[in-house]
Amino acid sequence: MKDILPYLTRSFFSMRWQDVLDIFVVAFIIYHFILMLKGTRAFRMLVGVVVIILVTILSQWLKLHTLNWLFSNFWQMGVLILVILFQPELRRALAQVGTTPFYLGATIKEEMVLKGIVEAAHTLATRKIGGLMVIEREMGLKNYIDSGIRMNAEVSKELLISIFLPYSPLHDGAAIIRYDKVVAAACLLPLSTDPRISKVLGTRHRAAIGLSEETDAVVVVISEERGAVSVAIGGKLTRELDKESLYRVLSNLFLKGSKKGKPSWAIITGE
What is the pLDDT confidence band of residue 135, given thresholds at 50, 70 and 90? Predict the structure, then answer.
């Protein structure tokens, strides 16, 4: 024990600035990776991986040869196993690399867009008409836009309502909003496979959660059975929102991150 303190002292004073930078970069990556997994199925799997690592170390220390042999063989394919386990999260993280925030324009225009979305959602819910509205953020949604019908029309309450009317040829699918435009309608979204999702939720809600798991988009979903409005963000669904609550959620995400002259459509998702 007496030798440890001098060793640590020598190591500290012999550190280069590159070593300090290296430590901070690795810590930053690990922190944001854990932050990204928090609250998802992958976080529980990550805990399981940590437990397996600890058991492997313990088996070596206690010289449990059979157990050590078993886990040593497991870790020979560890990288492949981790890629398979964390495939959705890795895909999402890689898709975010190089993305930059984009801006909607004047704050008044942001408010008009959000109010149009909120009014449309409330009207559809009152009439018990199903709807699925996706608001693009930092991560591009081109793959999903290409699956639908291109529109490039100004966002308005009337347009969004007309898209989801039962006799509209565009009602079966999602409307994707970018900046102040409805860029496409009747878009196909990926369904979530999370077993924890309530059985009372249908395909429309699973699609909303599924897209929010894979991207940073905000998805507003209206249930035709219950006439209820929900919002999916980061794989989590907030249900039974009234008009004021929905506007508060959206404004917290998009308006409160505004800076002088540059209201940003790309605000970090809140819990």
Answer: very high
Per DSSP bridges, beta strands 174-178 and 131-135 are parallel
pLDDT 10s digits, 30-84:
777 766 666 555 666 677 777 877 888 888 888 887 877 877 777 667 667 667 6
Has residue 266 been placed in a domain? no
- Residue whose tokens read 């790309």: 266
Q: Any idea what DSSP says for residue 238? A: E
Query: How far, in Å, CA of 149 to CA of 185, rounded?
Result: 5
Q: DSSP per residue over 79-130, as a string? A: HHHHHHHTHHHHHHHHHHTT----B-SSHHHHHHHHHHHHHHHHHHHHTT--
* pLDDT tens digit sequence for 161-196: 999 999 999 998 999 998 889 999 999 999 998 888
**104 in Cβ contact with 187 (< 8 Å):** no
Burial (CB < 10 A; 0-12, 13-18, 19+), residue 2, is: exposed
Quick check: helix, strand or coil at residue 79? Answer: helix
Q: Looking at the structure, do residues 11 and 138 belong to the same domain, yes or no?
A: no
Token pair belonging to 213: 């798991």
Is the domain of 76 the same as that of 111? no
Element (H, E) at 210: helix 203-214
Amino acid at site 105: G
8 Å CB contact between 185 and 175: yes
Assess contact for 186 and 172: CB atoms under 8 A.
yes
As a whole number of angstroms, the distance between CA 111 and CA 241 comes to: 19
Predicted TM-score (pTM) above 0.70: no
Same domain, 79 and 138: no
Q: How far apart are the first and last CA of the chain?
A: 45
